Amino acid sequence: MLNVAQIVSVDNISHRNSASSRKRVLEKLSQMLASNTSDTTAEKIFQALLDRERLGSTVLGKGVVIPHAKLPDITHTISAMMTLKQPINFDTADDQPIDIAFALLVPEENRDRHSQHLLQLTTLFRNADVCKKIRATINAEEIFNILLFMDS
């Protein structure tokens, strides 16, 4: 089974980001994701994440959102994570603002991997203890270490 730390690096974790809206969270995540590939742009990633959100919210609940999309241009799975200084409204079903966001992009032809990653991320972030530990961190390295030692 995949450990989440296998698909995200410490360089792609933003700790206590100041993004103040749903759009800003998706823009920042798009920029972070784009920094890991030359196959596409932050603008294309942003549009793919927005399009996916229009199909249905990617909010997991209890303060967590997992924006994700499949892109034809990329050749490998790319992810990025951020925690927010201040929780923001993300149009959640549970009316709880989000403060943890984990974005995932997979190649369009790799539907099985996309589903597996989403299942593992959902399992991980539904664990209240994991989220509590992430929220208590003081830097990106601590978040990465939590992910590294969690078997999702």
Write the layout of secondary structure elements.
Elements: E1 13-17, H1 22-34, H2 42-55, E2 59-61, E3 64-65, E4 68-71, E5 78-88, E6 98-107, H3 111-125, H4 128-135, H5 140-148
Parallel strand pairs: 1-5, 3-6, 4-6
Antiparallel strand pairs: 2-3, 5-6
Helix pairs in contact: 1-2
Task: Explain what you see.
The protein has one domain (4-148): Mannitol-specific EII, Chain A (3-Layer(aba) Sandwich). Helices cover 39% and strands 23% of the residues. It has helices at 22-34, 42-55, 111-125, 128-135, 140-148; strands at 13-17, 59-61, 64-65, 68-71, 78-88, 98-107. Strands 1, 2, 3, 4, 5 and 6 form a six-stranded mixed β-sheet that branches. Helix 1 crosses helix 2 (42-55). It is globular and about 35 Å long. The model has no long low-confidence stretch (mean pLDDT 92).
* Rounded radius of gyration (Å): 14 Å
Looking at the structure, what is the overall shape? globular
Strand content: 15-25%
At the fold tier of CATH, the topology name is Mannitol-specific EII, Chain A
Instruction: Spell the H/E element sequence.
Output: EHHEEEEEHHH
The CATH architecture would be 3-Layer(aba) Sandwich
Amino- and carboxy-terminal Cα gap: 7 Å
Q: Give the helix proportion (percent range).
A: 25-40%
Number of helices: 5
CATH class: Alpha Beta
Class per helix and strand makeup: alpha/beta
Give a short account of the largest sheet: 6 strands, mixed
Mean pLDDT: 92
Kindly state the number of beta strands: 6
